[in-house]
Amino acid sequence: MTTDTAKALQQLAEAFELIGAATAVLGAGNIPAGHAACYAKLIERIAQQTSRAQIRAAHALRRTGAHKLDQSSFLAIEEATEHPTLQNIEDAAGCTITGRTHFRNTRGMMRDWLDIPLGTASERLILADCLLGGVDEAGLPTPPWLPQLATEFNDPASDPRLVLAASKKLHSARKDLGEGEAGQAKKAQLERDSLTFMHAEPKSARKHISDLVAQVKAGKRSIKALLESIGIFKKGLRHGLIEYVVKALPSQAAYIEAFFASLDNPATVAGNREGLKDAEAQFTGEEASDWDDEQSMPDWAQDHAEGTEADADEAEADTEAPEATDADDATAAETANEPGTTEHQQEPGTESAPWEDLNPERRRLIGFMALLTSDRTASPPNKQPGLATPQVSIILNYERMLARASDFAVTSSGIQLSPGEARAALCQAGIYPVVLNGKSLPLDLGRTQRLYSKAQRRAIRAAYRGCSYPGCSMPAERCEIDHLDAWEKGGRTDIKNAALSCVIHHTARHCGLFHAVKIPQSRPMVLLSPELDSEQKLRINTYFMTPAEALEAEALADEATEQWRAGKLDAEIVDP
């Protein structure tokens, strides 16, 4: 038995040397593009194996009591790792003692001998408990705490990093699951749901699993306890900045998210880039700019700064507005009638201001400060930016509402509302209830015309919430509404002929990199190219859905895929 493990350790040492030698050549950068892609793919596979091996190594240290090894054993181990001959590795089998040892426990050994941070060492041992089993006080092995995820973890074809992330999240909710059979049943359901997300759409799995755990942790808290916890808390001065923590109810967060969406959209009053630059200057005393001085300013910006008004007028006279296309539905014409938009929209095709490149966090703070300091009684042009009224769309699932389910009301930003919050929100101005059928298709909104109407756009964005491409996290406010069947080819401006796509994936679809699929009485689905999806499964982007909605959507996609392959579904793969 010792010889077998010694050979395995020798192979591991050889693999370490081979990886180092290969990386020295491949990491030089002067390689063909295809080889670079192969290099990245293989390294990710190695990283997956390493993630799995780290947990198993921690489990082996604890199971064997390796922290009790004597001094001569550690000397032999050092020699074996420096010169990994089969004989040296055989001699490093080691001997544990019952007297005074170097390390108090496995965690201390991992920290002090392997130089692993204490938090990381503790996390690996916890994950070993969850996926490989632990050791009780008598030294006897115990079964894994998450048996379903343990099976997935031991599957060589699975990505262990995703399983590890899910296990860590579920373990954080162990005190909220309860005791007895009810707690075990709840834990088993969480495991099943987590596996469903991991298999269906790995890109969105982490988000949905986090939402599941958050629901478990919040499930037992009364509204009184929630109200006692909300507020804005000042943490103090840190690195020259004052830090605050905001804790809000989901219904309050819906308004905050809606206001942020307006700030992120340059076509709205709140997202007015020039106005927000002026607003930032009020607090900093300096004009907002991405350039430190004239030397760091690009040539085109210097030319613009030095140009005269006559030059600007001449350039404007020579510029013709481009014709509207489907891709412009959500930029030029689509925003013309939206509440909060200005009369002077940025012309399609013009370059965005450098201020657009600021990170969203800074842009949102400036817009929020502009909202706090603005004069609501002022009228344009003296009215400051940031006064757009947030619009919150609440999506009501009719079947769940009749069944008195707790998650029948969800905002367009994916925030789940309790029945009480939903009732209170519907009494406020600016709330737009959107009724959907069982397959998330908007009903009875808008009319047929060249461009989608205001009601149709609001319904589509509220229902789909973001880009249709699986795993894409671009929200609806930053997406374009695309005719699946092009208008110039006879396509109708109906809701069932609409898809929501970010700029990148809108272009990618028209370039044939993936296909939209129209399903009768359902939202459009996506068929990825064979090189990205060998299963060739119909997919739905569930990133903006609640966990319950995502599970239903994945089940719908699986059912549609099965019927489509059997020739029982009238699915239409849309041409680019």
From TrEMBL:
Question: Which residues lie in Acidic residues bias regions?
Answer: 308-331
List where Polar residues composition bias occurs: 338-349
Query: InterPro entries, from UniProt?
Result: HNH_nuc
User: Source organism's superkingdom?
Assistant: Bacteria
**SMART domains (UniProt xref):** HNHc
What Gene3D superfamilies does this protein's entry cite? 1.10.30.50
Where is the HNH nuclease domain positioned along the sequence? 455-507
Q: Where is this region: Disordered?
A: 303-359
Protein name per UniProt: HNH nuclease domain-containing protein
Q: Give the species.
A: Glutamicibacter nicotianae (Arthrobacter nicotianae)
